[in-house]
Write a structure and sequence with these properties.
single chain, alpha+beta, 6-stranded antiparallel β-sheet, 4-stranded antiparallel β-sheet, about 35% strand, globular
Length: about 190
């Protein structure tokens, strides 16, 4: 089965499973996630490949990591993610990308990402749930992080932490590729 088909099937199964476990109706999850009921139905029936933004919103609304939403097996406590199983969820024609390296629940979702932003590229994110924290470590180039309209320059070798309950943009305004490792910690959902 192709990677994308596997992801589509896993996402369908896991959204249904976690929605049931949380006791959410389709309408309730749609409202919490800010996505249409129709989109959720298509996702649960494995009839669409939603954007990473939509997957993140659904994960945030369910209080689980993107890794858990896309995981096709819940295995033992130790989970090694081989390099060939790292999931690339976002990319541009210029060569920018983000890869979900690993994730777990601790006690809320905790994810580690590998990002590459080519010169001039950017990726915007809607606000995450209150209490969400992101930590980025820039390994090459310079990151231009914009949080609530304020730009922060983070050069190679430097790190940045911020509360991600605000709209934010990861960008590269330089002339060389920017590479960074990003960790996202989302609090567990309030029941």
């Amino acid at each position: 089965m192709a990677d994308l088909d596997l992801l589509t099937q896993s996402l369908a199964r896991n959204v249904k499973r976690w929605r049931a476990e949380r006791g959410f109706t389709l309408d309730a999850l749609a409202a919490r996630a800010g996505v249409s009921r129709g989109m959720l139905i298509q996702i649960e029936q494995a009839r669409t490949n939603p954007s990473i933004g939509t997957v993140v919103k659904i994960g945030d609304a369910l209080g689980i990591s993107v890794t858990t939403l896309l995981d096709y097996e819940r295995g033992p406590r130790v989970r090694v993610v081989p390099a060939d199983q790292v999931v690339r969820l976002w990319r541009t024609d210029a060569g920018s990308y983000s890869r979900l390296l690993a994730g777990t629940e601790a006690p809320g979702p905790l994810e580690m990402w590998d990002w590459r932003l080519m010169p001039g590229d950017s990726s915007a994110s809607d606000p995450h749930p209150p209490g969400t924290v992101e930590i980025a470590h820039v390994t090459a180039g310079e990151l231009t992080l914009t949080v609530e309209g304020t730009e922060y320059r983070v050069p190679a070798g430097a790190s940045v932490t911020f509360e991600a309950a605000a709209a934010h943009v990861y960008g590269n305004t330089g002339d060389v590729p920017t590479e960074l490792v990003l960790t996202v910690s989302v609090p567990p959902p309030a029941h």
